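Dear colleagues,

For the upcoming journal club I promised to circulate an example of a predicted protein-ligand complex. I picked one with phosphoenolpyruvate because it came up in last month's discussion. The inputs are reproduced below in full, followed by the predicted structure.
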Amino acid sequence: MAANWKMNPPDRATALALAHAVATATADTDVDVVLCPPAVWLDAVAATVQDSPIRIGAQNLHASDSGAFTGELSAPMLLGVADYVIVGHSERRRLFGETDADVAAKVGAAVAHGIAPIVAVGESAEERRAGQTDQVISRQVRSALSGLELLAGSGLVVAYEPVWAIGTGDPASGADAQAGAALIRRLLAEHDAAAADATRVLYGGSVAPELASTCFAQPDIDGALVGGASLDAEAFAAIVRAAAR
Ligand code: PEP
């Protein structure tokens, strides 16, 4: 269960209080929980949850190890702090111009340094209306995998995040979420049949405690990438408990 805090909460004290509250509220489950705070608090959040099984993820990285890339962070810089990194979130693709090729390069960089990429893919509302959902997912997944030899050992996680469901309060139906996740599973199998079943496929898009059970009842959905609801420790913990059930 991955929490994408995005550019929230507004200050360090609130971020550390949230991390502490999540650690407390999820202490009794065996679900793997990853918190992805803003980069400036990665260290502090990691220190706050160090006595819990919670792992830390970054929200982005640059594909190069170092260099003249103002404002960017590299995989080597994340080492020792983040075990995961979100790559290709639709906000990065849409607002910051990330291409499929950028995503592939970032996946390669993360895996090369032992950081597990959580790759987000999914169609926009327009693409859905145009009947292009499968085409978009296939293009994005195949491209993201293009720099990887095998899935095994990569730590790769793929999140199906239909863009129209993100932050709208209008999640995909269980059937639509499953269809996207099943397609991703088939694409993973095309790449590395032996490892596809063991690769985690998440759903993301307005996941809330009330609907979480429907999401987790789907055979190809192993967890969720949670945005808005992850800023409320109790709501996030309720989603984690639904996954545990
Ligand atoms: C996200 O941005 O990855 C996300 C799933 O957001 P939300 O849960 O707020 O829809």
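Two points we might discuss: DSSP finds eleven helices and eight strands in the chain. The mean pLDDT is 97.

See you all on Thursday,
B. R.
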